C-alpha cells in the first residue's frame, strides 16, 4: 500500500500550472533572459516565437507589471523583438508559415506599442529607445511606416495594419505630443489611404470598418500639429478630387450616422405605434425571471453613455466640409441623385448623408448631459454652421426635390410635434436648433454652443428671406423657446456678463429676433406666426429692457476706457423695444376698458392684429450679413481638445467592438 505521505500523491501539493509555449517564452523575454548566443539561433528563436498565436493578455500583463525603469532595462530583448517583427512585415514572397508570422508580427507590434504608451512616465523618446535605440530610430520607424503603407493596400492585412497605424499615431492619446508621428509626416501615406477608399466598394459590409478606420486615421494625422506647420495629410484632405474616394466617404458617413442614431432608438423607441406600445406594455408581465425590462433609471444611465465612440468620425468630417469644396460639391450631387431616384419610388424612405446627419444631431442635442457630449454637440453645431454657409448646400436644400421626412428625437419633454410628411430640410435643421436651445439650458450656460445654434438659425433665416422662401414651419414652437432662453439670460445676467463670449452670444441671439421682426413677412407661413412672435416679445418686455440697459452701460464703459467697438450695440434692440412700447399701451388701455386683469393669449393676439397697421419699424440694413466661420485663431484650442476626445473614443471603440485582441 502506497503511503499518503508521498509528495506526488498528496492532494495538498499543487501541480505546476501548465503554460502555453507563447506565455513561457514571453515571460523569459520580459525577465531579460539571454534568448540566444549565435545569429543562427537568433533567427530560429524569432521564427519559432512569431509562429505562435499572440496572447495579447499575456503581453499586456507583462508590460503593465514592469516599471518604466524595468522596461528600459529590457531594451535589448525588445529591440530584437521589434526588428524581428519589422523583418516579417517587409518580406515580399510569403509561404503559409511566413504569412502567419506576418499577421502575428502586426499583432505583436500593436499590443506592445499600445501598452508602452500607457506607461505614464515613458516619453516617446523612451519608447524609441526601448524599441529601436535613438541611433537607428529614423531608419527603422521609416521602414515601419512604409511597411504599414504596403499592408494597408493588401486586403488580407489591411484591418490589422490599420489598427497598428491607429495605435501608433494615437500614442498616449495625445496625437500632438506624439513625436513618432513625425515619421508619418516625412513618409506621407495619404495618397495610399485615398486610393484604397476609391478602389473598395463601401456597400460591402466587410469594408465598412476599414473605411471608418482609414477616415479616422486621416483625421488624426491631418490634425497633428496642423496649426504649427504644413501638414501633408491636411493638404491632401483639402485638395483631393478623387470622386470615388469622396463618394465612399459620404456613403460611410450616411450609414454611420444612421447606426449612431439607432443606439438611442434601441433604448427608447420614440416613434412606437399603438400596437408596438401595447406589446411593450404587455411584455412587462411576461418577462422571465432572468430577463427584466430595463427601468427608466437604467435607460437614462445607458442613454448618458451615448453616443457610441464612432462619433469620433465627426472630426475628419469637419475638416472635409471646412476645407474641401469638391467634397461639398460631391455631397450635393449624391444627395440630388438620391432625390431623383426616390421620386420614382415615392413609398421608400429617402436617406442621404444630410438627412442622417440632421436626424442623429437631434438625438445628440437632446441627450447632451456630459462634458464629452458637450464637445461633440459643439463640433456638430460647427459642422452644421459650415454647411449653412455653403451656397451650393443652401441652394440644394431650397429645391422642392430635397424635401424629406427626417426622424427627429422625441425622447424628452417638451417634444416636437409629430411630423409624418416630407418638408424642407431648413425646417428639420431649425428643429435641431430648437431641440438644442430647449434641452441645454443649465446653470453653466455654454454660450459658445448657443451662439453657434443662433448663428445657424440666422444663416437659414437670411437665406430664405433673401430668396423669399416661405417655410411651412411650426414657428409657434420656436418663439417661446427663444424667449425662455432670453429670460434665463436676463435672470443670470450678473454671472454671464463677465464671460468673454457673452456679448457675441447676445449679438447672435438678438439677430434672430431682428431677422424675424424685420423680414418675417418674406418667410413666415401665416399671420398667426407673426402675431405669436409679437405676443412672445411683449411677454418678454422686461427681459429685453434689462439686456438693452446692460448693452448701453457696456457701450458707455467701453467708450470711456477706449476699448474697441463692442460686438453688440443698443441699435439692435431698437425695433424690439419699439414693438413693446407700441403694443403695451394698447394692451393696457384694452385691459382698463374691459376690466380684464389677465388677458388670454388669444385676446392679446387680437389686440396685436388690430394695432399692427400703425406700427412703423425702423429699417435695418445688412441684417442678413454675417462674418463667416474661421477656425484660426479663435477655435484652435477647441479643436485641440476635440482631437484628444476623439482619439480616446476611437481607441476605446477598437478595444470594445472590433479588436481581434480583446
Automatic annotation (TrEMBL):
Gene Ontology, cellular component aspect: cytosol; membrane
Protein name listed in UniProt: Armadillo-like helical domain-containing protein
Main subcellular location: membrane
Subcellular location: Membrane
Keyword Phosphoprotein belongs to the record: no
InterPro entries documented for this protein: ARMD3-like, ARMH3_C
Transmembrane segment boundaries: none
Native source species: Mucor plumbeus
Keywords, alphabetical: Membrane, Transmembrane, Transmembrane helix
Pfam families: ARMH3_C
Domain Armadillo-like helical, chain residue ranges per copy: 417-654
